UniProtKB/TrEMBL annotation:
Family: Belongs to the acetyltransferase family. RimI subfamily.
Lineage: Bacteria, Bacillati, Bacillota, Bacilli, Bacillales
EC top class, as a word: transferase
Protein name, as recorded: [Ribosomal protein bS18]-alanine N-acetyltransferase
UniProt KW Transferase keyword: yes
Organism name: Tepidibacillus fermentans
UniProt GO cellular component terms: cytoplasm; ribosome
Enzyme Commission identifier(s): 2.3.1.266
InterPro entries noted in UniProt: AcTrfase_RimI/Ard1 (IPR006464), Acyl_CoA_acyltransferase (IPR016181), GNAT_dom (IPR000182), YpeA/RimI_acetyltransf (IPR050680)
Length: 150
């Protein structure tokens, strides 16, 4: 992969429209534009990063950092660039950033049917540590709770 075509940086409110576009393309029940605005302007624990490919936002990731734990709120890669290992790159960046900010552990929830994401998280060292029953409001699908030590 030509790394000159990729940049990861902290998200700003000017990125919300592009983040929301990726969100809508990625999830059956996307977060609202207002939710992202609130995360970027009002949540002191939130850290959001965007991945630009050829100077266009094609992915983003968010986490809450509370004391020494990082909780991934969401991660998405636009469908037209999936399979290029950009999600892995973004996750590795987030993990290193969280560790640099003092996190010792990181957690996330993932749909039990999202085998591609689960496989990536396991590759990155995450372990399944529980289930949240009926976690997703749109389908009442269960979520797997995963943790990794950083």
């Amino acid at each position: 992969m030509d790394m000159d075509r990729i940049q990861i940086r902290r998200a700003t409110i000017d990125d919300i429209d592009q983040i929301w576009r990726v969100e809508q393309l990625s999830f059956p029940t996307p977060w609202s534009r207002q939710a992202f605005f609130s995360e970027l302007t009002n949540n002191q624990y939130a850290y959001y990063f965007v991945l630009e490919f050829d100077e266009r936002i094609v992915g983003y990731v968010g986490m809450w950092l509370i004391f020494d734990e990082a909780h991934i709120t969401n991660v998405a890669i636009s469908p037209e660039v999936r399979g290029m290992k950009l999600g892995e790159l973004l996750m590795r960046y987030l993990m290193a950033t969280a560790k640099g900010l003092g996190a010792n552990r990181m957690t996330l929830e993932v749909r039990i049917s999202n085998h591609i994401a689960i496989s990536l998280y396991k590759k990155l060292g995450f372990k399944e540590e529980g289930i949240r029953k009926n976690y997703y409001a749109d389908t009442f699908e269960d979520a797997i709770i995963m943790w990794v030590n950083l």
